[in-house]
Design a protein that fits this description.
homohexamer, alpha/beta, 10 helices, 4-stranded mixed beta sheet
Chain lengths: 338, 338, 338, 338, 338, 338
């Protein structure tokens, strides 16, 4: 029977300029909806899971459209709270070659910022749930969201529901000290932590920037090992990315189970839409783990899911399992499937 | 030499669903910019006036796009203040036949709400100005906007610059009592007031809904005469509209100069885009008055401008003088202009 | 608590030329999905009902897209059977003025034609159902569809679930004699029959073309009364339409409860998309009856729903209850809803 | 066997703003090709005739696209001359309601202006031809075009091929005196003249503006009778149009055979695209006459063809015979053709 | 004088999702027409050949649109049979990077499946023909298509018209044994065979997958030599492709004339649209051979034609001879042609 | 205070096929405006300069649209002369991979060809100007344009305004001898010359094609040194480009100050739109020099500006200073800017 997975967070209206035109050229915006946890929810629904998404959305047509967008791909939205002021927005201009993509956020005061813990019926939502996933973006949205996340994680842990957390630190949303204070509580004892909080006696805990510091696998193992000890996280996971340009990257991923650091295959690929790739990675890993896979297979699947996401327009990884398995199986030749 | 006209207010990002599709059907939005006073500014620039628009816009690409949109049609934006949080947004779904158009506002906390009076260099902006136009929407946006409007109107009156005010009461933006308290100060001694505040001993001052109450020309004359006496407004002006459907209307207009109530020709027309029609009316009247026209000619021009606006997509009345004169001259046959 | 309503039939891929361009001009088609009963299902889901749709769709991406399209608007598709060859298609060119809309069908051998009665789990689907709706199109699709419809209607009647049938006779799909033979069994004892089968001793039973024959209300009452007696239908219902042009119609509707013939208000309106208007009518009536309305109120609601549908692009009537109530309440002025 | 009809003239690149947006709003143009005689040629090919079009087009991709556009609808372009400078262009902004459509011409120095009479192989082109049609636009394009037209008409008359001429006087293209001088020679002895040249002793010959002068049928008969006598034209034909607005017209038509003035049915209709309607009229008449119809039937067919053209986007009347016959038969109800 | 070439096969409606969006994201499809032999026909017409295409299409607007699409590019469609049920369809989603393109076929029961040999007037069609080209797809469409192909090939051979056959084996269309049985008769004594049937004593005749088996030039020569002997084919030809990804390939080609195996230049290129590339190759070879080129030059031209096709959207290779010659001449720098 | 820069030249309507479709596939054109000097003017306005553009445009809506397009990005158009016949046009088909982009010019007889020197008010335009930029395209447009350019350059030199000239030789516009005769006068004593005129005793002065001749840096230094001596140009500048394909290039640039030849960094990049890249280079250099930068920094900035332009659709380099500085700073990783 399909696993039941709960995710919780904000879903935003994404307004993208056509093609890769610049903001100042746009006379229209493509309008879809996305957000870190919603992206995970859609992937899991697409994989046939019973996927529930929790959020708060205004009781107007824009809020309804966000719900409809999730329903399209099979996400259960029965527990979405309606009310508040507005749907958060992010404007996106997709880059190409040496020109990076740009995001302009207009997400303050969105409905989820007003959410009260009591508005969520945890007993119903978490009934028979097999997994709970959330990200570090939600607590960055304000005091009420911190309370919501803390309550939800506490509830899930109490019920013995496995929890995964994608740290997803964004320095435009909050400062690091506040981030760390909130997140160290949340990632305590979870099953999967995407990203890490470094334990540096001089700098304090920090999300290190390895790409720039040239950390090698040995370095990763040390840091992940420290994560494991401090927070009792079952798996520490990360992607490793080479940014050649806005449209050409390479990547692999790492997982640490407390003993072994395993690195996935590495892929070289061009990019159609990079947003949501990290969520496709997280969703791929959760999908495999909740269905009993070995953590190495799960990492390979997650990495292929992430790579494939870059070829799909929008926030969602609208690929099916056989397509991802073809990638892990080594078929990246792109021959026409007739 | 071209007259210099200053307008001040908010310009919003308008996100319209394609064709007349519903919000829940939209996968893209047409993106333009508009707002009551900005619409007036564009019309006047299009007529060859030196047209200055005052507002505050965020220092990001969306704010820049709003400025660019105004510059396209020749509006001078040198005095636009940059800063604050966001560009206000309104979502628009255009109706047809028995289905009305719908607006969803998402305009709270826009940059203009943060404006400080000191951010505007009134001396430069109003130097040699021939007219100042504003609407009742701006003071509805918050305390700082009230201060801005009061300061600006006071400055203009002191300098002897003619002032026009479009009352533009919107019950979603503020309640009537507050509206009246603010606006009676502003319309005192102005040259043109679009709309009126009724002096009803029982109901207090009120914007009457004549269409529903069946007020006749005699009734209008009484009310406008009272307006004239209480506020010393030179001209009281209004449009009269028959709403047959979302796509079929008829309209004429009234002007009162303290002595005579003059009614314009009446037009029957179908509608492409109704938003901004009232602004096209106001702009047409201001254009003619500032250039020395008789008030009756000005009203006919304003009415034709308003009617013609309904045929133009977007907030702006992008018509040229000869096109409007053709309408006032009675040519509404729509024969191809080769 | 929301009523549970089951509908069953074919959903087709609708390929419409852009704007109102002709087939031979099209370089692209707008692609949505629709079908008589699916249209009813979407309307009911949109009204907040628990709406289940039964059909068979191929196990490919086109079949999945049809399901996704239904899910977008909240229809439950858990009981849709997957398999068979193809999604049926209809090509649509929308007319205007004196030029009619044109439909080219390419629906033969679609998956539902292969459906086996055993593929449907009737016990689960009809559990706690409050209504069952179907149309005369489904049995026209072939022998297996006839068996399916007969089985489903029999099952519903046995369980005491109210049944509505939209006769929807299409002479391109089957000949009249076969139609009558099948349908007289199905409409026996149902609660609502949309359309009628005439009992003419000379011509045999026939769906009369009243518009051309100038039948008056008295005539309708006679025919409906005969329907009532022969088939024990609770309500006989029909729309009455004046086709002025492809884009301008007027309509009202009739309902007969065995005693009284009630005629709804009549509306004059222009047309954006006519397809699915009859389904919006049926859905409106079912919605009101299943929720306990008086049959006259139900007819008024159904008529307004039908009229409003003509303003919405696509097969579905994506309007909400308050919008329909505004029409029945007499507000067809189309004033902007800000 | 299908009749062979030769037409000759200029085909232009038509650049239309999207929807009914104004020139100053356009960020793209719809790009098709059209021209008075080309429009006639396409209609006749669409009706199954062997339709040949003669023109000169540059030997570049824009010229090739014009040829391809004609071939799409079955026009034979084997005798099109390649060379010269450019494809003439007209920019079109489609009006609506009280706002007229606007055309900006950029057609000077197009390839056909450079045509040499010797470049056309008249013997091959006119071999077994059943009709020759041209318009008064071509000789307006310059001296070489006048020579071409005179040569072609002379050739056709000599071979006994029936000739039809659409006067199509455009005051932006040439002045009236020159027009008359050229055209009186051309229309001498032709079979059909669309429009007329008035024989007014005071004003000289002139194309009268009857719509404004209130000429009645008696007046038309007088003028046409004079046409007949002076030029020995077999049929004088014209359309009569009521321009209510850019999107709402009514029309009928007149034909005079030297004895009787026959008026067609009158139609009331809305307009999608007015350009080419006169050519649809001419083409309809030629089609019927060349295939042996009675002139009254031909006029009814031509009128219906013209009315129907207004519902089709672009210059061409892409309707088939049964659709036109439905209109002449009185079915303008626009009911969906399933 | 231009050579006359006849091709015969199915032309399908191709419905492509916009950009490279996935099927489940599409709200519209780009609509063009294509098919293996039709693609060859268009290329040859574009090269100035007298190009005739034989097929059967339904007598509705979709069938007409397919004909019009061919006529646009100059293909003669006078011998296309009208009738039958439907135009076959293929849905296409274009991949990118590691994500392959996907095709969903909906082509069963198309009109050509109903074709009767007598519906084709072979004497007229093949009169003065210089070449006949067909592919292995057509006989896969059913018994009547096998008869048609056999009859046509027999007729051509009898008349001494050179024949080329593109084996084009598709395992979704038929099983290999049936394929071989039919095709060995057809390729007997033809001038060109694209692809080969392997003569492997263990596996029986088979289309080998060389890319996966690492066959070298020596291996190809052996197989082609065996083809030559068994079937008396004048030239055996194939492309050799390196699939790096859906958007990046390299390729060259081989031709064997019974004595020498010649390999073309190899090209590295990115891909806009891969469909029809094989047909562009075949068409290029036929074009050169029918016009008397050396087989090596023909192969170079064919290879360049194939490479260039990958840069053109749609099934057709809409390139002109000079563009292909530039590629064979070594200019692949893509400098702007002003 | 912002520097005032004057540019002068032709602005054309650019009609581009959608995506990278071929001319013969286009049913619409994207419509923007551009031209060598206009592109420079827009870049400088975008950088915050007071940027004036001089040209002549017809007094119709197409001319107005060109002006509006410039105003959008802040260019001052107050001195644009209105009149003449038409806006010049260029049709653009964007290539990809081995297929080059193609331009079809239709620019003859545009308004600027009719310009009279007296129509420009040089005293006003050049008042307080800090720089004057022009290109070799303008004098190629005809005798009046030569007079205009000579007069303007003479005026600027007399007033001590620095002048830059982009030679921009186009062999479709004029022959080399005439080019050289005109340009050697113009580039005498200017501050910057983009490109060079070679002093070859055998071939006469010539614009050499170094890419093909394999000239090394030593060779460049010799030629530039000779330029310096003959024409007293302060800086000789050029880009060096490796054309791998239509969508993949590499480039660096050279500057010579009379003593030292400095080469910029080299970049490898993919291409969205190549048109206007040279103008982005020129504009970048002028921007830095007019604001007092060192010539080496100016060259690095110009090169990065040029590279970045290739990622922007349209003729204009709509990038801001910080984006260009990021490139010169070595960040070409294209990471998302959130």
């Amino acid at each position: 029977m399909a696993k039941k997975i709960v995710t919780m967070g904000e879903i935003l209206l994404r307004l993208t300029t056509p093609g890769n035109s610049r903001f100042v050229q746009a006379r229209s915006f493509d309008a879809i909806y996305g957000g870190s946890e919603a992206n995970v929810a859609v992937f899991l629904a697409n994989m046939g899971m019973e996927s529930y998404f929790l959020t708060k959305l205004p009781d107007n047509e824009i809020g309804q459209s966000a719900i409809n967008f999730l329903r399209t791909y099979g996400v259960n939205t029965d527990y979405v709270v309606r009310g508040g002021e507005r749907v958060g927005i992010y404007f996106l201009e997709k880059g190409t070659s040496v020109r990076p993509s740009k995001v302009v956020y207009d997400r303050k005061n969105s409905s989820i910022c007003d959410i009260e813990v009591e508005e969520i019926d945890f007993d119903s939502v978490f009934k028979d749930a097999d997994w709970f996933h959330l990200s570090g973006i939600t607590p960055a949205l304000g005091e009420k969201c911190i309370q919501l996340v803390e309550k939800a994680v506490e509830y899930a842990k109490k019920k013995g529901i496995p929890v995964s957390v994608d740290l997803n630190y964004r320095n435009k949303l909050w400062d690091y000290a506040e981030f760390e204070k909130v997140m160290v509580k949340i990632i305590k004892d979870v099953d999967v932590c995407f990203g890490w909080i470094d334990d540096d006696s001089e700098k304090g805990h920090k999300i290190a920037d390895f790409a720039k510091q040239g950390v090698d696998l040995k370095g990763f193992k040390d840091i992940f090992s420290s994560m494991k000890k401090r927070f009792n996280v079952k798996y520490v996971v990360t992607t490793l990315r080479d940014n050649y340009s806005a449209t050409h990257n390479a990547m692999s991923a790492l997982i640490y189970n407390g003993e072994e650091l395993y690195q996935s295959k590495k892929y070289d690929f061009t990019i159609q839409d990079r947003v949501g790739a990290g969520d496709a990675f997280a969703a791929g890993l959760v999908y495999k783990l909740v269905n009993g896979s070995d953590y190495k297979d799960a990492l390979e699947f997650a990495t292929a899911s992430c790579v494939l996401k870059h070829t799909v327009e929008g926030d969602f990884n609208l690929c099916i399992e056989s397509e991802i398995m073809a990638i892990t199986g080594g078929n990246t030749s792109g021959s026409v499937q007739r």
